[in-house]
Amino acid sequence: MIYRVTILLLVGLANFMFAKETKWQIPDLPVPVSSFGAVESEGYLYVYGGHAGKTHKYDTKTVIGSFWRIQLQQEGAKWEELPSGPILQGMNLATNGGKIYRVGGMQPRNQPNEPTDNHSVSDVAVYDPASKKWSELPSLPSGRSSHDVIIVQNKLYVIGGWELKGKGQKAQWSEVTFELDLQAKDARWKSIKQPFQRRALTVSAIGEKIYVIGGLDPEGNSSQRVDILDVTTQKWSQGPEYLGEGVGFSPAAATVQGTIFLSTSDGNLQRLDLKKNSWEKMGESATKRMVHRLVPFGKSLLLVGGANKSGPIAAIETIEIQDK
To answer: Taking the domains of the chain in order of start, what are their residue ranges?
Structure first.
């Protein structure tokens, strides 16, 4: 396998800076993939599903349901294939208590060379590494894909996205965020009205606040808007728009040391300065990518998969954040 190291344009800001190179490296993904789910849990990077074909070509062969993990900071570690599931893209993973949660996603039902027939699913499942098994959870009230998910205070949130209903049917854009209390007996999904309709967005959290970043609106416009949900009050507010031009589609965000970092399709890496209420550029990734994931691990960020003009990407870039 090929090993990658990120080299960044260094810009030291506030109490952070990016390291010139990482102290550890991760093998490439087993399959180059975009629009997939990824999360770190208990020292492992987990990756599920995604699109492994040409851009805008969707069928039962180009969308996969593979599930993999690799132990981080372990010399000689190799990818371990785990129990697979339904073919899905346009979804993400979340973790809580060592378990991995998978929510929704888009599933093509057409064979290669047949007319595209994409459906958003309402399936929700949890993977327990101890038993190595998936278990079903209450389904979403409606299908959802091109969304993002996050767990805050033991509650699972499903934000943004749309519902694709198949060939020839109009997509239904989501107007609500779904919430599920993972500790409640007989838990049921609740709805929180959203002040926006966007898909291909990313979310990250600081404390009890969820930041909903970027995306596309129903008119197809790229948005760099930031909406903030306080999960305690369930009230929305608006944050500062992030930097760049035309980079609203499928950015990737993660929180490290109480700071949100963002990776956009132009290759820029930036962070949210809460005191100044603004975004600041911190560097550039080695490979420009979109429909990727930015996964936090300790004081590091993992820039995973995605796609660019050359197609799906297998490389994982590791970025160390150091105190100045």
So the answer is: 3-323
Distance (Å, rounded) from C-alpha 294 to C-alpha 306?
10
CA distance 132 to 84: 11
Whether the Cβ atoms of residue 16 and residue 300 lie closer than 8 Å to each other: no
CA angle centred on 189, ends 185 and 191, rounded to 5°: 140
Q: Give Cα separations from 58 to 129, 173, 179, 223, 307 (angstroms).
A: 30, 20, 29, 25, 15
Give CA–CA dist 9/1, Å, rounded: 26
Report CA 183 to chain centroid distance, whole Å: 23
0.90 exceeded by the pTM?
Answer: yes
Q: Which of 35, 43, 42 is nearest to 92 (CA)?
A: 35
- At 198, the amino acid letter reads R
pLDDT of the chain along its 324 residues, tens only? Answer: 232 334 343 333 334 445 444 556 899 999 999 999 999 999 999 999 999 999 889 999 999 999 999 999 998 999 999 999 999 999 999 999 999 999 999 999 999 999 999 999 999 999 999 999 999 999 999 999 999 999 999 999 999 999 999 999 999 999 999 999 999 999 999 999 999 999 999 999 999 999 999 999 999 999 999 999 999 999 999 999 999 999 999 999 999 999 999 999 999 999 999 999 999 999 999 999 999 999 999 999 999 999 999 999 999 999 988 765
- CATH number corresponding to 3-323: 2.120.10.80
> What is the signed CA dihedral for 165, 169, 175, 179, rounded to 10 degrees?
0
Going through 91-198 in order, the beta strands assigned E by DSSP cover 92-96, 99-103, 106-108, 118-120, 124-128, 133-136, 148-152, 155-159, 162-163, 172-173, 176-181, 190-193
